[in-house]
Amino acid sequence: MSNTEKYSLNSRKVAEATNEWLLKRGVKKEAIAELVHFLQKDYFPDLTPEDCMVHVDAVLSKREVQNAVLTGIQLDILAEEGKLMAPLQDMIKHDEGLYGCDEILALSIVNVYGSIGFTNFGYIDKLKPGILVKLNDKSDGDCHTFLDDIVGAIAASAASRIAHRKQAEREGVTTPPLD
Asked: Could you tell me if 171 and 55 are in contact, meaning their C-beta atoms sit under 8 angstroms apart?
């Protein structure tokens, strides 16, 4: 890029890259929607996986979320390829228990969706249901130190979005919070 060219990021390309990299790393949006359903089914028995998918898509449409997804996946890949410097390489590759930057990056996602997002994230991060079991498995050589937390954060955020919208519906509010 020459000095006279101005940097301009194409938002559509960022969104496409986010979806592409999630798929390349084995994460389908349907699997995230299943986590959302897991988190909210007891509170909203009529909630369908399709309803959950709408909220997953809404969360993934946010630039802050896309930034976290792309950053975390790249760090996981670099660790997988052994391209980080020590001791960071080992901390990420082995998902070191005292290394909390993966959770902090994920919290940047839930931060967009309020305190219920934080509690949902803590809950799902502890249980690791659904696709989180696979992403947390270290036996296959893949590194998902960041991605498992990011996927959990997307699900927690979508669950929070549902809870806020359902409350707004009960209150007759036409413009729900946290779009």
From this structure: no
Q: Model-level pTM?
A: 0.95
DSSP 118-152: HHHHHHHHHH--THHHHHH--TTS---TTHHHHHH
Element (H, E) at 63: helix 63-80
DSSP designation for 173: -
Calculate the alpha carbon distances from 115 to 42, 50, 81 in Å.
19, 25, 36
Structure token pair of residue 140: 């296959």
pLDDT at residue 2 in the model: 60
3-state helix, strand, coil in the chain (%, to 5): 65, 0, 35
Contacts of 162 (CB under 8 A, 6+ apart): 36, 40, 44, 47, 51, 52, 55
**178 has a pLDDT exceeding 90:** no
Instruction: Tell me the CA distances in angstroms from 71 to 11, 76, 150, 166, one per residue in order.
Output: 16, 9, 10, 32
pLDDT of residue 122: 97
At position 70, the amino acid (one-letter code) is L
Average pLDDT over residues 7-23: 95
